[in-house]
């Protein structure tokens, strides 16, 4: 973006977010003056990546600046998160990830390379994504009960796809195992794209992923949906039983997506991002696109997002202790 005087810049962005200038620097460039990088700690093509690209496309319009999505998968999202916590707190490097990064990892991993409560600045929780238990279409398991019964007969032999130790699918699968008194074996994959292939080929007995990542394969007949991780049936897949009706309310898991920046993000940048995100998530076209990806658009600001993080980590730590999950 070329240098503009204050009056010209404000006029140019009228109807969008307020212009920002760094304090104490006469004639300083306004934010955002260059492309913003949004780190997604999952592989391209998965549910998190899909949500990120849909939202940042509209967010870029609101900010009047291009946004680049950087996929940095690995280590149960820790690699991507570290890229953000180690970045300058200037608003040009942001994180878009699911609850795995914000509450699951710190709950299950004793030695985590980052602390989301001290090294990240919450910006907004913007979408919820129902999870679904799936298996290959050629799998012998036609119901979740049948899968659980096989696991009970052969403890530890039934395996499932996870995104690495401490990831959401790992924690949820262990919650399921604890609720049913069975033992399962995790097989790690880098993200939805890899795990989907493994599930279709029956390399693993089952997997747990977002409806956004799994729905196309279920609809095409390549995968079978066994249960939706919710108290009641999802209107997205009304034919699939819910955890609640299967007696698994104790294993419920709320999957959500949120933006954050490095700690000590300037208040003015946080405010501008919040304003832009609010306008972005209110866009009817974006809401329709998210719904088509089986995602529920929401807009919860930094205070509510932090409260949810506090609530979830308390619950998950209790589950980890009760189920004796030891990630290290």
Question: What structural class is derived from the secondary structure elements?
Answer: alpha/beta
Mean pLDDT across the residues is: 89
The tally of beta strands, per DSSP, is 13
Strand order of the largest sheet: 4-3-5-12-6-13
- Number of helical segments? 12
Order of helices and strands: HEEEHEHEHHEEHEHEHEHEEHHEH
What is the general shape? globular
Percent of residues in helices: 40-55%
| Terminal residue distance | 46 Å
Strand content is 15-25%
Largest sheet: 6 strands, mixed
> If you compute it from the alpha carbons, what radius of gyration comes out, rounded to the nearest whole angstrom?
21 Å
Can you tell me the residue ranges where pLDDT is under 50 for at least 5 consecutive residues?
A: 1-19, 21-28
Tell me what you see in this structure.
The N and C termini lie far apart (46 Å). This protein has helices at residues 6-12, 47-63, 78-85, 99-108, 116-119, 144-153, 168-180, 192-200, 211-219, 267-281, 284-292, 302-323; strands spanning 20-21, 30-31, 36-40, 67-71, 93-98, 120-128, 131-136, 159-162, 185-188, 206-210, 223-228, 256-262, 296-300. It has twelve helices and 13 strands. The protein has a six-stranded mixed β-sheet, with helices on both faces. α4 runs parallel beside α12 (302-323). It is of the alpha/beta class and 328 residues long. The protein is globular, with a radius of gyration of 21 Å.
